[in-house]
Amino acid sequence: MTVPTDSYRQVLSTPRVKSLLMAGVIGRLAYGIIPFAVVVAFAERHGFGVAGVASTVLMAAIALLGPWRGRQVDRHGPKVVLACAAIWTAAFVLLAVFLRHIPWPAALVVVGIAGGLAPPLSPILRTGWSQLLPDKKQLQRIHSLDSIIEETTFVVAPLLTTATLTFASPAWALALGAVLPAIASPLLITFANISLGSDAVSFRKPETNAGPTPTTPSSSGRKRSLLWGREGQGTVLPIAALGTAGGGLAIVLPALAEHGGRISSAGYGFAAFSLGGVLGGLLYGRNRSQASLRSKYLAATVFLTAALLTLFVPGGTTITVVAVFLAGLAVTPLFVIGYLLVDEYFQRDRHTEANALLGSGYNLGSALGSSLAGILLTAAGVHTTLAALAIVAALGAFAVVLLPKRATGLAGDMATEGSLSGP
């Protein structure tokens, strides 16, 4: 039996792909463990009020400085990743040992520093795929598979943290989350074969794919954030809208469940959303449509908007679960298309920054969605809140229009070769 060249099995047989996936799992576990561990550790010592502040400081620092960290990696190479990993490890080991003995404002400073300098492992991994797998169909496969594995990792991480907290103290959970990036960072650099020089990151392809690799001169606008350009806005804003919808649903689903009489039934909605994300990733990974990435991005954001609107259909828990499952179907495809758009629209020496922007956009959108939903639920009720989330999703679809219909320059030339959308 022959295996199609763009199948999952063929992609996994590519040298270093499995190793990179393993390194990614190790690093991402830390990002699922640390937020939970920080809340528990601060709550145990200082109460839930301070714990909430600590969580906000951590997540805001990770999200807001994510693009900056990615830009530093693009400019100075993997030594930035190793330095960030060392600072992250030192900071959280320090908290694990001394949290009970230092004032909480000082502890918050440590959390902020660690979050601001969190090693950008996931953006680097996403950048590596576009260098390791030149075929665009294979690239679609690996981004889909990586997204599914990432989603699963963030299911496992809280369970692992819970087990650690059950049999040990929060300090041990902090220590576990502290050391994982220190393990993952050198593994990622080794398996991706990243140059350790002072130049921009260079993910070298296996010898079987060796050949001349286009290089990109540094642009005069290198210090300018990619978010100021149409390509950056058109790529990031739909992901930020997705984050807003996800963050809002985290507040709306319990409210809908309570209205139906059982707040515990909200768990069905959360599970359906995650299941939709996994299934959506599997289905999109096998997508063979020749439509442009821009058109697919628009279709996925419109689908998300329509799914949110189905929450207005009366029918109790069953309709809610179905509607949220449909919304979840758009999650992984939107991320996968976003990562593919990075490869299509941005020069190689800005890929890590662009990939980091996607993660930051989602996280900031999620924080905005949670806050917006909480305010609107209190002031105007569930239906107004749902309408607001649907409007934000629709704005994400409108933002796709900002993307030029064709990438220009070297990035566009590189993307056109073997592109999913054809010549």
Give a verbal description of the structure.
There is one protein chain. By secondary structure, the chain is mainly alpha-helical. Helices cover 74% and strands 0% of the residues. It is built from 17 helices and no strands. Helix 4 packs antiparallel against helix 15. The longest helix has 32 residues, at 136-167. The protein is globular and about 55 Å long. Mean pLDDT is 80; it is low at 1-5, 195-221 and 409-423.
Specify the biggest β-sheet: none
Give, in order, the helices and strands: HHHHHHHHHHHHHHHHH
How helical, in percent, are the residues?
over 70%
How large is the radius of gyration?
A: 21 Å
Number of helices: 17
* Portion in beta strands: under 5%
SS elements, strand count: 0
Identify low-pLDDT runs.
1-5, 195-221, 409-423
> Which geometry do the CA atoms define?
globular
**What's the N-to-C terminus distance?**
31 Å
Mean pLDDT: 80
Label the structural class.
mainly alpha
